[in-house]
Each structure stands twice: as structure tokens, then as C-alpha cells.
Fold this sequence. Notes:
By secondary structure, the protein is mostly helical. It contains 24 helices and 7 strands.
Amino acid sequence: RPGRFDREFHFPLPSATARADILRIHTSKWSPQPHPALLSVLSDRTAGFCGADLKSLVTESALGALRRRYPQIYKTNKRLLLDTASITVKAQDFYLALRKIKPAQARSSDNTRLPLPQHIRPLLSDTLQELVQHITKVAPALKSTCSSDSTQQDLKSEATELVAGEPEIYKGVSARNTSYQDIDQFFSTLESFYTGVPSHRPRLLVRSHNTLIMSGLLHAFEQVPLHEISLTTLNDPNYRTLEEAASRIVSGARKQTPSILYLPYLDVLENSCNISVCNVIHTMISDTPPATNMIIVATLSGKQDLMQDSLFSDLFRPTETVTPSTPSASNITDFFTPLLTTELSRSFNVTPQNHEEGVEELEEAPPVQPKPLSEEEIHAIEKREAATLRELRLFLRDIVNKIMKERKFYCFCKPVNLEEVSDYLEVVTKPMDLEKIREKIDCMEYDTIKEFTDDVELIAENAIEYNPADDHTGRQIRHRAAELKDFLHSLLDNELDEDFAKLCEEIKSARAARRDAQTDNTRSGRNSENSKHTGSVRRRASVSTTEDNMTVEQNGYSTEVQSSDKANTLVQKIVKLVSGVPIDTILRLHTLLHQVVISNRPDNTKSRDQVLDDVIEPVIDRFARTLQN
């Protein structure tokens, strides 16, 4: 209901600049610091990552460096001494971490906002830029979202104070009377200042849907909330009917402006859904106020326009309908040239290392010394322990009182009269009685239940040991001694909490450990320092700290490989072959050639030009015949 929440906050996924800042924060304590260029590349390749995903990426890269440097730590359960200064996170560790980490958004739903892959940008970057210019032309409000500093610009504009023309809004402060028109006119000025260039029903219809281009287009405006209406989203199990799904999606886009309402394959959607679903979509879009910054972006499956009898034909004007331009000859040249030059010239001689030979022998780390407690912590612990032992003494007094109330145990209450039995101390070396136990309780000599039960059992054992079994009086005392044991354990079983008894045992052990720590603290600290100095890493063989698990020799890896005349000839042949064909056909040819290049890299038996003549050119000729057929 209205008034329940004062503000509603929307936290979108971080932009490229925000992702770079997050990575910089998580690596701020690294020495040396990662290069800014590395963070920029990672921020571009982590579209769709949230803050937690970026933290996992940094953690996984560090773990990868640890596994590469010290693979032996995963073969033992012992704690080993490591030289952390020799662990260096490299670019390959970040790459391997990128392959392992899957962003949370991708695990829950498909991400329709992804930048163009790096190797495809030479082919489609110009086409994508044209579409970005089209959409910013029909929706000027999206211009600021293209820049990475849009949030800072908004904050600066909100902090701007317009002094000129400010009307007086307090009574009796100025001699000039402020009218309704003055304040209303000033508010209109502010609205024009903050809103910027207005737009009227911003819409864009893109013919010939291409997934890569549209994904890159939506990624260019990644800070704008996206609401998609497609066959996939309409059939979401969270909605009961298709009409309800369409209504909620459009309503969400209208409430959260500026926003993008994305309708991929609009013609397929119209042919697949019933007329009521299309009417809901059309009506809600038509009823949206003209000045609402809800940008409608739709695509068609082919190059043809919407049919005249289409329900959505009146939503898009001719100026709002565009066809993505096909890649130019220079785009195609830039796309295929690296494949036939740089990629074909790369040669990797990978020699796996034998981890059984030349692996460092690491010494076992000394036991971890517990962190010394502060005086406040020790005082708090002792206070809790004293309270627990106080409860113990109250409990033991209650047990002793119950035993002493039994008349049959009266003979065990007081010490033995040595005048009556002068030889008692010759038989019993450690006399004990209930009165003495009460004195020990008062003197706080019992820390555990076991200490108390040992003394009570000692009373019974002394009685059994001194009194003979062949005498009537002796037999009576022996029976009462045995009954004393049973009576004691019966009371403990009924009234003692086992957790309380364990707690008392722990308190006794902790106190003993603290006493030992106080006496041996200086000695153990000195020994620990000596262990750190003498625990240097021994090596079975000389192993460089900068070597990876695999030694990689790269010949011709540089991007400045000189292109041969044969490579240039084949690239021009490809340009003539694929000029004007669909983008998917160009990508299919590039993938096919990439597979052939990887399988037929030049070696000592054949040169690069021989590979181009014998392998690459026949593949291009076969593809040309396929296109002709």
C-alpha cells in the first residue's frame, strides 16, 4: 500500500567502469598492483558479473597461481611452509578463472546483454555503432547512459544550484510578492534543465535480427533496465497466462523509466501468439504517455517490413525502421586477415613438466600458536568460568547433603576416631570422609565432577579395605560402603547434566593451558621465530619460481606478423565471395577456416604459404561452390 516504503532502490549490475573499480578494490592489497590495462580487459570480458562474481574471479585466479607454483600441497594433509613472495598471479590465471567462473545471472537466466566477442568486432563494430546512433537519435535520453560516467553526471546535475531566477518562497523576506506563475515557471525551467532533450514515443524497429548485433546493442545501454517480451519470457512458469505475462512486463517497463522494452522476432511473436496477447501488448504500448522514456526496440526475422495487416504496423514510423548495414570490404578484410596471418603463424611447443621430478621439498610448518588473549578477554573468560564453577559447588553441596541425610551413611560423615582404631593409618594411607569433602567444596578444590566422585568412592574403598569380611560389624560397614557408591551414581544420573560436566572439564583444561602458556610464552615464541628462519625451502632440483606447470614456447605469436602476398590474395578472394551475403554466412566461413588453421599450422615440413595453397584455398573454393548451389 502507499506510504509503506519511503524509497525504492534499484541496484543494476555494475557497468564496465564499475567492474574495473571492483576489481581494483579486490586487488588493492596485492604487491605489485595489477596493471590498469589488465583490469580494463577483465571488465570488458565480465559483462553480466555482479560484485560477488568478480570477487570469486580474483580468488580463483590467486588459487590458480598457488596450484601452479606449489602443486605438491594437494598431495598431503600436512601444513607446509610456503614462500608466498614467489606466488605470482599471471594473465593466464585470470583467463583460466574466467573459464571456470559462471556469473550468477547466467545460472538463473540467459543473458541477452553481451558485448561483441573480441574476434568479431572488426566485422560488426561499424554496424553496431550505426544502430547505437539510431537509437540515441530517437531516444536522446539514452546518450548519457552510453558513457561510463553517467552516474557521476547525474550526481553532479543534482548538486547544481541554479541561482539565476530563483523565486523567493518565504513570507515576509522580500518586498516583491511571488506569484503562482513565478514558481511554476521556475519549476518548468528546472524540468527542462534536468530532463534534457525530450523525446516523443521513442521506438526502433530493426530488420533482419542478428543475435550478436542485438546483444551488443543492448550491452551498449547496460545501465538501462531491460524488459523483454518474447516467446521465452511469455511462457515463464511464474505467470498463469500469456496475457498476464505481457501485462506485467510492459507495466514494469513503464514504471522503471528510462527503460528498454525489447521485442525480438516481433513477426514470429505475432504469428505464434493468439490475438488477445497481441492486443494486450499493442494496447499497453499505445496507451503509454508520449513523453515516457520507455524505448521500444523490436526486431524482425527477415529483411521485409511488417505486413500491412499486422497489428503492430502502426507502432513504428518509417524513420524508426532500420536495416543493419552489411559489413564493408574493409571490415571483412580486417576480420579475415588476422586468421590467415597471425593465427596461422602461431606455433606452440608445449612440454608438460614431470611433477615427480624437480618439485620442491617443502618443510612441515610448525604448529600454529594460539593468538594471545588481551587482559579484557582473559577477564571475561575467567568471569564466565567462575560462574560455572559456582554452579558446580552448589550442585556438589546438594549431593553431599542428600548423602548425609541418610542414617545408614552416618558412619562416613566424620573422620575415623584413631583412639578407637589405632592401626587405621597403617592400613589406610589416604583417609577421607564427607565432612572433609564439604570442606574441600568450600575451599574450591573441586573443578570437575570426577574429582568429587573420586573422593566419595575413596571413602567406600577405605571402608572396604580396613574392615574384614569375616566380622559381622565389618560386613555391615562393607555393605554400606558399596551402597554409598550406588547411591552416589544414582543421584548423579538423575540430576547431573552431561553437557555441564563436559563444560567443567573444558574449564579445567583451559586453565591449565593458560598457566602453561604464561610460563612458556617467551620460550615458545623464540622457538617459533627460529623455526621460521631455519625453515627455508629445500629443492630437489633447480626450479625457476616464474615457470608455469607447462613450458610454452611461442614462435610468431606477435600480432605484427608480416602478411604474405598469398595471404593477401586469399583475403581479397574472400571479400569478393562474401560481399552482400548474410552475416551468419560470413561467420560460418570464418569458423570453418579457423578450424582448418588450428588443425594445419605450419611446422618443419611445410611453410605457411604451402598451408595456404594446399589447405586453405581449397576450403575457400568448396565454400564458394556451396554458395553458388
